[in-house]
Design goal:
Elements (H helix, E strand, L loop, with lengths): L20 H22 L7 H19 L4 H14 L1 H19 L2 H9 L8 H16 L2 H19 L3 H18 L4 H10 L3 H28 L10 H10 L8 H11 L4 H19 L1 H8 L6 H13 L2 E2 L5 H4 L3 E2 L6 H19 L2 H12 L3 H18 L3 H18 L4 H13 L9 H10 L3 H4 L4 H16 L10
Antiparallel strand pairs: 1-2
Helix pairs in contact: 1-2, 1-18, 2-17, 3-17, 4-9, 4-13, 4-15, 5-6, 6-7, 6-8, 6-10, 7-8, 7-22, 8-10, 9-17, 9-20, 9-21, 10-21, 10-24, 12-13, 14-15, 17-20, 18-20, 19-20, 19-21, 19-24, 20-21, 21-24
Length: 490
């Protein structure tokens, strides 16, 4: 697959007086401190813009360090421009992901996945089924938060009726939700990690599957064993939810043709932009054929014709779209934000590139990389330092995005200097940054899911097998040397 990032070999070499490690870490510690305080003040709203500005302030601190190191301002700006240019492919992919999510919603593709997923419930394998259902829904939507707040709440209610531990159930729900969040091309973290590391979306997903599939397999087996050894009472009645879905959408297995074709394109290593564009257009065609009433409703016009059809499809692709059902719990699930919904993540990437570009220009990343390579002489040591850095950011900065952005920019050069392909870094960021955020009570993810499901973090943390096994799995692969991809030498 053609890499969407700029060729590192063509980037200019920055040469200044070499910073010592204390000078190089000043912007990093300043950034972490400012982010921690900002998240404390704004909570879940920190990503609405204040965190992005804090990244710019972190860049300003780095620029001051560079000023005393005699680095020209133009040199810093040039490096920022190179960094932003390297993310052009990732930004375009993010916009196309938003477009695809919109057409897959109004076409009924996402509701169809959810409809058939809910039908595999059975009291004996209820916990394992929770993992599978939430995996399917999160893969379809790209959001663990939406999965938890919709189907997750319904599953908690069923578990309560069956007399199954709510801590176990929440652990199963979040295990599945974060599997999908981590592996779905619709997920913002799945797009953010390769953008920070310097690889492309589908290369990242394929490489990440090597550690993720064994982890989710172990998780499902663990819940099957637990399920076979607990007593249940009552039944898993999802009739009301299924009726609400079928009343709002024309559900048909034929709609699976679209995602299957996109999967085939991905497997055949088609360019991510091309595969996502084709998926978006096929979703639009499916919407016009299978859900003409929904297309008309989204258009806001009275009669379905070429103009209203065009307007409905374009609205789904570009702006907020929602399909109302008679179930209030499902209304949040059947909502998409189109390309506009990706602008927040793009904003975060651009600000991270400013911080990373200035750190590169002043020589701070080179100094940190050199120190890391001296401190961790082995490949395993570098992987371990990445994992622990992500965990530390989740605990201190209390945000999974920052646990991806900061270590991503800090370790990228170290991986390159070690001869490791960037997907090693992007996989480590997701295996440790994305999934462990929900295990920290004061992290935005931990606080959100605990509040939505009504289960304390400490009650479900021990059962969120997928979330805490993922970092161990990536460290195991590094320790044994399994599938560690090296850079191609030209």
């Amino acid at each position: 697959m053609e890499n969407s990032t700029a060729n590192p070999e063509n980037e200019p070499v920055i040469q200044n007086r070499e910073l010592n490690i204390r000078e190089a870490l000043i912007p990093v510690f300043a950034l972490i401190a400012m982010l921690a305080f900002n998240v404390f003040v704004f909570g879940d709203d920190a990503l609405s813009g204040s965190n992005q500005f804090i990244l710019l302030l972190g860049g300003a601190v780095a620029a001051v360090v560079g000023y005393f190191n005699k680095v020209k301002f133009d040199t810093m700006i040039d490096e920022v421009a190179n960094n932003i240019q390297s993310t052009a492919g990732a930004i375009l992919i993010l916009l196309m992901v938003g477009a695809l999510a919109g057409t897959w919603l109004i076409s009924g593709i996402i509701p169809t996945m959810i409809y058939y997923g809910l039908q595999i419930l059975n009291p004996t394998i209820f916990l394992a089924a929770c993992v599978v259902i939430c995996s399917v829904i999160s893969l379809a939507t790209g959001s663990s938060w939406t999965t938890s707040a919709t189907v997750g709440i319904a599953l908690i209610g069923i578990a309560d009726a069956l007399g199954i531990s709510l801590g176990m159930t929440a652990g199963a729900i979040l295990s599945g939700a974060y599997f999908g969040d981590k592996m779905s091309p619709l997920s913002d973290t799945t797009n953010l990690a390769p953008a920070m590391a310097g690889t492309d979306l589908f290369t990242h997903i394929r490489y990440m599957a090597l550690t993720t599939v064994p982890t989710i397999t172990i998780t499902i087996i663990a819940f099957i064993i637990i399920g076979l050894n607990i007593d249940t009472s009552g039944s898993t009645d999802t009739t009301e939810i299924l009726n609400s879905i079928s009343a709002s959408f024309n559900i048909s297995p034929w709609l699976f043709v679209v995602p299957v074709l996109v999967i085939v394109l991905i497997v055949r290593k088609t360019s991510p932009l091309i595969a996502l564009l084709i998926g978006t257009l096929l979703g639009a065609v499916a919407a016009l054929i299978a859900q003409p009433d929904i297309v008309l409703a989204v258009s806001g016009m009275e009669n379905l014709n070429f103009i209203s059809g065009y307007k409905g499809i374009m609205n789904a692709i570009t702006v907020d779209t929602a399909v109302e059902t008679d179930s209030e719990a499902l209304n949040d699930l059947f909502a998409a934000s189109g390309m506009a919904g990706m602008l927040g993540t793009i904003w975060l990437i651009l600000c991270a590139m400013v911080f990373g570009g200035i750190m590169e220009a002043i020589g701070a990343l080179a100094t940190i990389s050199k120190a890391l390579l001296n401190l961790f002489h082995t490949t395993f040591g570098l992987f371990a330092s990445t994992v622990f850095s992500c965990l530390a950011l989740n605990v201190t900065a209390s945000d999974q995005y920052l646990a991806i952005v900061v270590p991503g920019k800090m370790f990228a050069k170290a991986y390159k200097d070690k001869g490791l392909a960037p997907e090693n870094l992007s996989r480590s960021l997701e295996d440790s940054g994305t999934v462990t955020s929900v295990l920290v009570p004061w992290n935005t993810c931990g606080a959100y899911h605990s509040g939505v499901l009504g289960v304390p973090v400490l009650s479900y943390a021990g059962y969120a097998f997928f979330n805490y096994l993922s970092p161990f799995m990536t460290l195991l692969f590094a320790a044994v040397g399994i599938k560690i991809k090296m850079l191609n030498k030209k």
